[in-house]
Amino acid sequence: MKHFLDSLRRSLSAKLSIWVVLFTAMILLASLFYSSYVARRYVRVEAVQRASQVLENSVLKLMNILEDVELAADNLEWLVYRNLEHPELMMDYSRSTVQGTPGLNGCSISFEPYYYKDRYYYSAYSGYLDEDTIQTVQEGGDDYQYFYLSWYQLPKLLNQPCWTEPYCDWEQDDSSDMQTEKLVSYCKPLNDPDGNFIGSISLDISLNWLSKTLSSVQPYPHSYVVLVSRGGTFLVHPDPDKLFYQTIYTGTLLDDDPELEALGDSMLDQEEGMRSLKIDGKRSYVFYTPLKSTGWSMGIVCPERDIFSGFNRLRWLVIGIGLLGLVLMFIVCFRVIRQTLRPLSNLAVQAGNIADGHFDTILPEDPRQDEIGTLSRSFAHMQTSLVTYIDELKRTTAQRERIESELQVARDIQMGMIPRVFPDKGDIDLFGVMVPAKEVGGDLYDFYVLDGKLYFCVGDVSGKGIPASLLMAMALTVFRVAVQQAPPVTEIARQLNEALSAENDQLMFVTMFIGAIDLKTGRMAFCNCGHNPPAFLRKDGKASFVPSEPNIPLGVTPGYVFKGQEVDDVRGIPILLYTDGLNEAENEAHEPFGNDRLLEVMGSAPYDDAEEMIGRMNDAVKAHVAGAEASDDLTMLCFRINH
Predict the structure, then answer these.
(1) In terms of Cα–Cα distance, which of 521, 449, 530, 527 is closest to 491?
(2) How far is CA 157 from CA 24, 74, 140, 162, in A?
(3) Burial per residue of 324-340, b for 16 or more beta-carbon CB atoms within 10 angstroms, e otherwise
């Protein structure tokens, strides 16, 4: 299984086929969902119509039965009134009524005690012992006091015809054993000419027979008819155990069932309608209608699975056909796409060979004019271009390595020109550092002690790279030659300017701060040639810039007369010279380090020595730029003349 899934992940044909099948499946599912929704509505409407028609027919059938019974009672009443003085005829009337009325289970013509002077009990009853045998008896007696029963008392109390609630009566079989029968009776009172109650007529219908008769027609295989009395008792139900003994509310006694309670209330209120609810754990639809003349209500219970059985079978059939179609579609798509993409697969293999360094791999020509053919020809052209490019890259890489090697040599030479040995901490505490932004840079610093004087300079050549480094080397050389003659600082500046101005076709220049300090008196003479003013640490611990009058940079104008300045005594005062790589250092947000921060860092702690001061300043710059690429060379020279 894992191998199969890995193959699918590596196969473009399988992936494309899966996407096609998935998209088709989505369309099929949407169509199936919509069609199922519409079809289910139509099936439901058809079920309502079908069940309603069956319910209407069942009601008509029941009403015909009830009307026959009521008509038989009316006819019997007429005969009884005509022959009240002949009690023996009541037996014949009872028997003929049972014989002549289909569906009638029994008939009783019963009278008040001693209506006939010599008889305390007199009730002429005829009923079926079996399907063909009718038994006629006088059913009154001490063991069967009929005038206390509901079918006798109801017409007496109501003084009008009525249907009784279901009840159990007994009948006698051939062996004289008593057996009960579940009945419902239509009763009519018998009154004398003065309106006094003298007896009743009762025509009985068997609930079992009524259930079989009404359940013979079913709209669906497992549907059934129910008939409830005005009190909710089942008159008709396919389960004989529920007849007479249970009501429509019986199922709610142990478990709360609001849906069943609502159905019972609606049927007892003589309402008509349809409800969906669970009956015996199965979702069913109940269609019901009242029988106004009796107070009863009839319903048809149709299980939902029966109503939608055909729909569900069709739906699963469609789903099965759809799944089979999707499988076949995947197989066909996979084969077609794999055949179509076969040249692309070959091209992928050849591309892998080229990627492994086999640039001489021969790509077959593809005559196809579609996108794959275009890709194949483009790849062949790319192979040729790649071979050419790699050859050029090899030559370029060799040249770059040679240049980098030469630049490293130039860097070593340049760094060798910058003083790296500093005086011991005696009369002079001095330290300097230069960090080029590229392999070589244009910053410089130098110092020289001659005849009791300290000569020093810090300069910044315009531009960067090799041209700046060459001009830096020239300036440094001229400075060292000029210092040997111990001239004034303005003379040193003049000599540098004249040397750098000669044949300066590139119009490059150098900003430089040149100074000389008498180590005995501490008097400092300096000339600022367009450079940043040095910073110094005052006795109160705060830093400031040395006030200076700027001159033009060196190498701009030949013959320029430089002006110098002097400070009476700088002994014991730390002085920091720097290039603009310090105060103009930027972070990633292009925010400069700034002069204010330079002074703040310089005065943030007591001065220890020149190296510590430069280290502190260097750490502050690194923290500010926070990894941003350096945009300029950084040079610093710090010193203090001790007493």
Answers:
(1) 527
(2) 76, 19, 20, 11
(3) eebeeebeebbeebbee
Q: Return the ∠ at Cα 315 (arms to 309 and 316), rounded to 5°.
A: 95
All domains in the chain, ordered by first residue: 60-306 (3.30.450.20), 355-399 (no CATH), 418-641 (3.60.40.10)
Contacts of 468 (CB under 8 A, 6+ apart): 440, 441, 442, 461, 462, 508
From 557, 641, 623, select the one nearest 585 (Cα to Cα).
623
DSSP 8-state assignment for residue 554:
B
pLDDT tens per residue, range 143-196 = 889 989 989 999 999 999 999 888 887 654 444 344 567 888 999 999 999 999
CA 364 distance to own-chain centroid: 48
Q: Write b or e for each residue in 20-33: b if 16 or more Cβ atoms lie within 10 A of its Cβ, otherwise e.
A: bbeebbeebeeebe
Task: Yes or no: say if 218 and 224 are a contact pair by the CB < 8 Å rule.
Answer: yes
What six digits make up the tokens of 346? Answer: 């070959």
CB distance 140 to 110 below 8 Å: yes
Q: What are phi and psi of 306, to 5 degrees?
A: -70, -40
Contacts of 388 (CB under 8 A, 6+ apart): none
CA atoms of 294 and 227, how far apart (whole Å): 11
The structure tokens listed for 312 are 């569900």
DSSP secondary structure, 325-380, as one string: HHHHHHHHHHHHHHHHTHHHHHHHHHHHHHHTT-TTPPPPP----SHHHHHHHHHH
Cα 151 to Cα 317: distance, rounded to the nearest angstrom: 57
Distance CA 249, CA 263 (A): 9
pLDDT tens digits, one per residue of 4-38: 556 556 667 777 778 888 888 888 888 888 888 88
Q: Which among 287, 290, 217 is positioned nearest to 45, based on CA atoms?
A: 287
**How far is residue 393's CA from residue 250's CA, in Å, rounded to a whole number?**
95
Q: d(Cα 255, Cα 281) in Å, to the nearest integer? A: 12
